[in-house]
Inverse folding.
């Protein structure tokens, strides 16, 4: 009998095993990976380039300074896809990022309900007047996966109103030199 | 020498136990008649056609595919589900018995489709270098949102599709948003499913 070296026999052995496992049968499968992206976008849209809240001109001596009507020209748009495991919901906060409200005055902010142009879990607006001071305020909470639509008349309408604050000496603190521009920043944050 | 014999014997046993479809057909010639010859003689000849039911998924790239939703770039816009994948091809070889036919079923065998999206697959009509009684495909895409086996190709007779990509039935997977369920979407970076195709007897 011809003598085969052990390496040769082992090679045949491995080949046979490989052949056995590579046989097709009546079934086959494949992997499919689905990826849904993390999304957290927010933007501010306005009919005007800048909002101007000002005191009305007094034409008769003895009358009190009043302020122009509330401004409703600002709309907040957002897109959000939240994660199921490590994140529950998001909220929108608003803060003064530059400048400050003049003495004697309060800047009131109200968020309205979503305009209904988008889809998803839009969140709950805080519809009561909130005083915007130094600290950020939460204006929409419990935002899930949603999108509002883009531009004015989409998303959440924001009302700004300038009023005298209710402190006793607020009128005396009014100072026309404090007229100024302030920057307001909206942030979409994880809970 | 003893070890070599053992290894050789193991190889022979393995060869006998594997599903190698080649079958050893014993052919024998049986002489009919008595020991005395005449002007005639005959012998029997056994013809065996093997039962064949093989299915394979082929791709010109990789069998592991992915579908990714597109994130918006502007606040207020939605996530877009417009990606499809047509990389995979179903090959099969089938020899049936008389008046029988086979189907191909598709099934998610591992993992779940994420909430808020629908996964569907559609197979094209056969194309390639095969021949025989190819199966017919459903004109409508099949939703794969549960783990039940569903028929994607039916009426397969004795046929072979050809081997490899661009042979057989092309598979197109689509990911779409579930209607009125945007709030159910959750971002997932690594959600992997196993999808299994099986050639079954009717």
């Amino acid at each position: 009998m011809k003598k085969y070296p052990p390496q040769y026999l082992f090679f045949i052995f491995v080949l046979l095993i490989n052949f056995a496992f590579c046989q097709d049968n009546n079934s086959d499968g494949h992997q499919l990976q689905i990826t849904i992206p993390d999304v957290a976008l927010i933007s501010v849209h306005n009919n005007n380039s800048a909002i101007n809240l000002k005191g009305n001109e007094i034409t008769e001596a003895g009358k009190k300074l009043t302020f122009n009507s509330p401004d409703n020209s600002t709309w907040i748009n957002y897109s959000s896809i939240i994660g199921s495991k490590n994140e529950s919901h998001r909220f929108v906060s608003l803060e003064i990022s530059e400048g400050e409200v003049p003495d004697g005055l309060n800047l009131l902010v109200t968020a309205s309900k979503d305009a209904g142009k988008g889809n998803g879990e839009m969140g709950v607006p805080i519809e009561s007047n909130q005083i915007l001071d130094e600290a950020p305020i939460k204006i929409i909470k419990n935002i899930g996966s949603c999108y509002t639509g883009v531009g004015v008349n989409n998303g959440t309408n924001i009302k700004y109103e300038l009023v005298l604050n209710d402190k006793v000496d607020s009128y005396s603190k009014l100072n026309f030199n404090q007229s100024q521009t302030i920057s307001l920043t909206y942030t979409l944050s994880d809970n | 020498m003893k070890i070599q014999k053992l290894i050789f014997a193991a190889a022979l046993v393995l060869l006998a136990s594997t599903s190698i479809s080649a079958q050893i057909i014993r052919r024998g010639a049986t002489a009919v008649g008595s020991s005395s010859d005449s002007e005639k003689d005959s012998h029997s000849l056994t013809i065996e056609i093997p039962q064949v039911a093989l299915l394979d998924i082929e791709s010109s790239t990789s069998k592991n595919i992915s579908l990714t939703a597109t994130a918006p770039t502007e606040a207020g816009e939605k996530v877009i589900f417009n990606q499809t994948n047509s990389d995979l091809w179903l090959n099969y070889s089938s020899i049936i018995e008389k008046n029988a036919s086979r189907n191909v079923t598709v099934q998610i065998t591992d993992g779940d489709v994420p909430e808020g999206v629908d996964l569907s697959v559609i197979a094209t009509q056969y194309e390639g270098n095969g021949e025989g009684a190819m199966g017919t495909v459903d004109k409508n895409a099949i939703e794969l949102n549960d783990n039940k086996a569903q028929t994607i190709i039916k009426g397969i007779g004795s046929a072979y599709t050809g081997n490899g990509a661009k042979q057989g039935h092309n598979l197109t997977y689509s990911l779409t948003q579930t209607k009125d369920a945007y709030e159910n979407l959750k971002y997932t970076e690594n959600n992997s499913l196993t999808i299994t195709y099986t050639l079954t007897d009717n």
